[in-house]
Design brief:
By secondary structure, the protein is an alpha+beta fold. Helices cover 26% and strands 41% of the residues. It is built from five helices and eight strands, in the order βααββββαβαββα. Strands 2-3-4-5-1-6-7-8 form an eight-stranded antiparallel sheet. Helix 2 runs antiparallel to helix 3. It is globular. The chain starts with 7 loop residues before the first strand and ends with a helix.
Length: 153
C-alpha cells in the first residue's frame, strides 16, 4: 500500500505577548512545555534543534512526522512567536496552541493566523479554510478579519 498524505493540512502562527520574561529565558522549562504541548496533539517528534541566544532569547524547532513546529522568544519584549504546520488534517495543532496558551499565561495573543492548507491551487478554496484575526483573551476566541478585504490582498 502506498502512503498518501491528507490533501488538507493546518497552519497556526501567533505571538504570545505579556509572558513573564524569566520564563521566556528559562530554556529547560520552555523545552519541556513545548514538548508537552506537541504531545497534546500526539505528534511524532522526529528531532529537535534549539539555540540559546546571548545575552537572552531562545528558539526551538521540532521536525514532526506530520511536518514542523517552532517557538522563538523575545524576553526583552515579553513575547514569543509560535508557528506550526501539520499535514494531518484541518484544525490540527489547536491542542498544542491551547496548551502553550495555558502554560505561558500571556496577557494577550496577537497576529493570530490559522488556515487550512490545500494542495489545490485554487485561491477561493484556500481562503475558505482560513482564519485571519487576533485572539481576544477576554472572550477566549479569535476575532476574525473581513474575508472580502483579504481577497483583495
Amino acid at each position: 500500500m502506498v502512503y498518501k498524505a491528507s490533501p488538507v493540512g493546518n497552519e497556526i502562527s501567533c505571538v504570545f505577548h505579556g509572558v513573564e520574561a524569566g520564563l521566556l529565558n528559562d530554556y529547560s522549562r520552555l523545552e519541556k512545555i513545548f514538548t508537552e504541548a506537541l504531545e497534546q496533539d500526539k505528534f511524532s517528534v522526529l528531532g529537535r534543534l534549539d539555540n540559546k541566544f546571548t545575552p537572552k532569547g531562545y528558539s526551538i524547532v521540532a521536525l514532526l512526522g506530520e511536518s514542523q513546529a517552532g517557538i522563538h522568544t523575545f524576553p526583552e519584549y515579553g513575547s514569543m512567536h509560535f508557528g506550526i504546520y501539520t499535514c494531518r488534517a484541518p484544525g490540527d495543532g489547536k491542542r498544542t496552541f491551547e496548551y502553550l496558551k495555558r502554560e505561558l499565561n500571556p496577557e494577550y495573543i496577537g497576529d493570530y493566523f490559522e488556515r487550512s492548507v490545500r494542495v489545490a491551487q485554487d485561491r477561493e478554496l484556500e481562503l475558505q479554510g482560513s482564519v485571519f484575526g487576533r485572539f481576544d483573551p477576554e472572550i477566549g476566541k479569535v476575532i476574525e478579519l473581513d474575508r472580502k478585504a483579504i481577497r483583495n490582498l
